[in-house]
């Protein structure tokens, strides 16, 4: 990529559209955020994506070369088609790349949102320099991305890296995907809230109860994490259990893919070592031991910017290299 | 590879050494098998490998270009080093490639045995033409191999594809690797024999009892499969349960790697659809559904020759392409 080139990266979420002007080194020059308004349907959301890009173009004055979009759910990057995204009601197969290209005239690529975060963390974040990297995002959903042999791995139908739907407990809770005991059903935001609620019903979790104002509906992973940081034993136990489930899945991933580093992002990862420490311990206990193998499990480095940075770098395709230290 | 070129492929097992002269299309021209004599130690086994190769060279009269060896356990293919193979007592780190090269003068490459089977099935067996293929071998151990984006995937330390050590039941039986509930601990040969033994102790499995002569020590997966074919309900149940466990692991693999085809080889796979049918059903029930995705689960095509064919093709390195139908 020529120095000084700029790209627009867009993260299309169920709640917000984040757009950014990103340079060739993955630095964010400008941000714009607006509500997705998913309930208004496909056309309205596409209009807002166009609006977000136009706002960036007109206010930055930079020459924009391309647009990259990260979208939830299954995406076919070769055709730029979004397929039945879970948080966007009414979306079937939507040819998002050509819709945006048609409206704005910039070459546009679309990829899965967690794959975009993965690409960003690998090229200029916590996984920089790795040849084999696994990325997880912990939130309402649990997403994944794989960099194998220095390439984003997409699988036969672009559906690889659904780490949230690896089976961890075959008889575990029913998952949204229809399977039982998926990682997501055990460590996703609603699983954490449910565990916290059960602790409170047992008369534990004084601090969680206080922070949620006694209203179960207000119990979020953030509240559980804050309570745990204040020393709430029940909250710590919830995060510990979640970390162990995560570690069981990580051990299987290590045995299957032998990566150098595992990067954990997403909202719930803010609980940090309260989740990551038990996850590391369970992973190390269960993964095959090799004398010279140490798989790092580290927090993502780019925070909320990962999605837009990755989408921007994805738009540039294969003519960008990982940013060196 | 020039037409007519020949390579020696060797499969180093805990019990037998199989060697073969293989041509550039993966056809076996000649075979030689001898006992490994693992108890005699490293030097004796290396001598037998040399002897096996010499026998092939002298009796075939063909010009041999290279030697490829598949060895159990962890192998570092870049250095040709075998590392603590599970069925070869007394082996630490053994520089097998340079030992054989020194004795015979042919360029020699060493890879993990299941990776060799995977390569063979992909290049000229059941997975021919696939871009993304997963291979499992079911036997005393459960091995795996991955072809991702048309390349044998080895991982950061050559330790990828340990599919037998993915966790399927976190609180399941203790595995040889130290973890609990690994696929191998649930579907390996001794797990199958143990399930059969328990059925007989419950007074079931008339045919299994008859075929094993009432001696539990004689209960093998082959006997269970033969009894099941004769209609023994308890034997069928054992294989069904094994198939379901296999299917749970396959669903996780499908969600993680999105392959086109899964090839199942190894001794236990001779039970065929008695295991594969429940495995397919469990996999399809648990893997994320995509309208246009159908992942085939098929038996290996090359049988016992897979190991030597793969080792031979591996010795030729990257200058061979998959054999076209």
UniProtKB/TrEMBL annotation, chains A, B:
Domain of life: Bacteria
Pfam families cross-referenced by the UniProt entry: ROK
Signal sequence extent: none
InterPro entries: ATPase_NBD, ROK, ROK_cs
Family: Belongs to the ROK (NagC/XylR) family.
Record protein name field: Glucokinase
Organism per entry: candidate division TA06 bacterium SM1_40
Lineage: Bacteria, Bacteria division TA06
